[in-house]
Every structure is written in structure tokens, then in C-alpha cells.
Amino acid sequence: MDKLFLIDLGRNLTKTYSEFFRDLENKTFLHPIIRVSNPYEVFLLITRSLLAGVTVDLLDSDLSDSEINRLGITDKDLSEQLELERIHIPDFETFKGYVLLGSKTWKIGLYTSGTTGRPKKVYHSFSSLTRNVKVGPKYTDNIWAFAYNPTHVAGVQVFFQALMNQNSIVFVFDLEKQKIPFVLENYKVTNISATPTFYRTILPLFEKPVETVYRVTLGGEKFDPGLEGALRKVFPNAKIVNIYASTEAGTLLSTDGEFFSIPEGKEGYFKIAEDGELLVHKEYLGESTDIVLDGEWYHTGDIVEFTEDGRIRFVGRKNEMINVGGYKVNPNEVEEEIKKIDGVVDAYVYARKNQLTGNILVAEVVLRDKENNKQEMEKIIYEKLRRSLQNWKIPRIIKFVDEIKVTRTGKKVRQ
Known about the structure:
By secondary structure, this protein is of the alpha/beta class. It contains 12 helices and 25 strands.
């Protein structure tokens, strides 16, 4: 039976691998700047460029004209078109042969999310994007729930992990959240990779465990220890893996919890600055004129701390720290304390300007039960926080919201 390539219920689209290969054969023109909204078209164009060995840039389809102009892209750039030689792909082995040839010259330009500044464009090769892709007979039956934006680095990496093992992909990134429990069970999904925010949004919707999932991967945001227990209840048979990655470098570190160890033999490629910022050697980076180096080192902007046994724990982003009356507050720390409170699904802490203290903290809180007495929950939250946090770390305003606003990549919008 022909293996399924993609199931996209939101667009009522199903494609087999035979259909995917046929569409690749018929794709004889290609725009070097890929800007399409349909995930299948994104996967098709990425793959066709790879087989042809031509460099492409990948854009979010919902970028406004002004955003595109700020990236230095013109209408002429968007309309440029390349003619490709027709190819024939009768089977998966032939397909892999084309990948081997095309990957020698192929590059793809990916943009950082731009949540804290102008997006940076970084070019990655096939080898840098598949640095941690595992291929072999033990992976051939995997079925992936695709929960990342397909135009960003995490999505491209998950795509290649699935593609190179001829796995089926179930696209859930923009699917109605209420449908996801049914989808995971109905299609017997085995692997899911997403941001912690995505998981927090969907976990309250599950009425029973999903036993087919055996690997759950988190990335893109700081790991939340409290989330791990909730994941184990819904996915009791899954190994939970925490990934540290970036658009600039791809996947760098992985662990089964909150604490990372530098891989043996790679110690010289990572170092910690005096202020706790993690630095990565330039050898791990993609190609970019937008990346500023400090000698041979790239400042990641991530603050870490050492544990007693020599491992590292990520504390937060350097530019996320909020100055409240002269005190530096890490919003991640405050969010973690709020999320420990029974009945809270998620929380988002940010700054609001204040004449006296420079900033005050505001917390947006999502409750499991939307019918909860808001005044009573606010009282409970303040009581808990006074026992666990110093006074300047306690939000002065609490807002109850239905959901937390996220970026195009599914992360919280940090202001």
C-alpha cells in the first residue's frame, strides 16, 4: 500500500508519497523566494529546490508588504523564476539518490522570528539542518504530528526527519485545538514536536491518555518542569526530550529534562560569559551577514547557570529581563510560579511602563475552568506568590484571558 505523506485536515488535503513524487516530477519552475501559505506547497518547494541543488529563501506567507520591504526584498525578487530539469522518481531509493546529489550545492535561507528585533537571514545546508536527523529501519513506521510553522527552522528540521524515513506527517500547527486529541488517536501518531506553549494549550483538551505516542519533543522556549508531569499523564508511553536550538545554529543540545550536558568532545564549542550568557563557536552557525561575532564566538542571548554536577540550566533570555524599581526580574521565573497554582493552564508576564518604578509587571493567566470565580482566583494567585516570590517580582495587574498570544513560530510574544 502506498504510504501516506501528508494529512492536513484543516485544508481537507491528503497526499501519498507516490503523489508527492509525481508533483515533484511535474514541478519544472521554481521561485528562489518561497512565499506560499499551503503547508504542502511549502514542503513540495523545499524538496524540489533540494533535488535541484538550488538555493532558496523561505518566507512566512503572511508577511506584510512593509515587513518584506524591511527585509530588503523587492517585487522583482519575488517574481523571479527558475526553470528546472524534469526528473523521474519511481521509488524512494531514487528519491534519496537525488537528495544526495542536490544536497552538495543546496542552501536554504531562513529568517529568525524577529520577536526582539529585525529578523536575521541565515543560510543552512542540508547537512547542518539534518545534523541530528536519525535514519534507519527503526524509524520507518513513525507518524509525526507536525506542530511547528513549516517556514521556520524547527519545522524544516522536523520535516526532514520525517521525509528521510518516508514517514507520514499529520499537520496540526494551525488545526483547531479541540480536534487535536482525536487526530493524534485516530491516526496513531507516534511522534510530536512542539513549543511548550503549544502543549499547554492542548493538554487540557485530552479526556484520556494517548498511548501510541512514544516520543514528545519540546523546543523553542524555556523548559517548564511543571509541564513534564502533565505530558506524562497524557502521553504515558512517551520519552520526553528537551531540545535547545536556534535559527542561527540549528539543533545544538538535547536532554530528557531541564538540565543539559555538553556532548563529549564538543566542550570547546560552548562557553559561558561572565554575565551567564551562553556563547557558541562560529563552526556551529549557518552562513549569514546578519550575525555579529565576538571573535570566533556568537552571543546567543540565552542566560544559563551551572548546576553542582557541571550541567547547565537555561534561565531565560538576556533581553527579556525587566527592570522594576532597579531590580531585574526574569518573567520566566514569575510565570513558573503562577503555573504551579492549581487551575492555571498557562501564564505570560510582561512589563508596563510606570512613572514611579520604571515598569510594573502584568500577568495574563489562562484558567483550566473558564467559569472559575475570577476574583477568588486572583486572590489565590496573590496569596501563593507572596509566599514564593520577593515583592518586586509579583505582578501588580492580573488579567484572565482565553489564550496567550503567540508568534508565527508558536512562541509567546515577548515585549
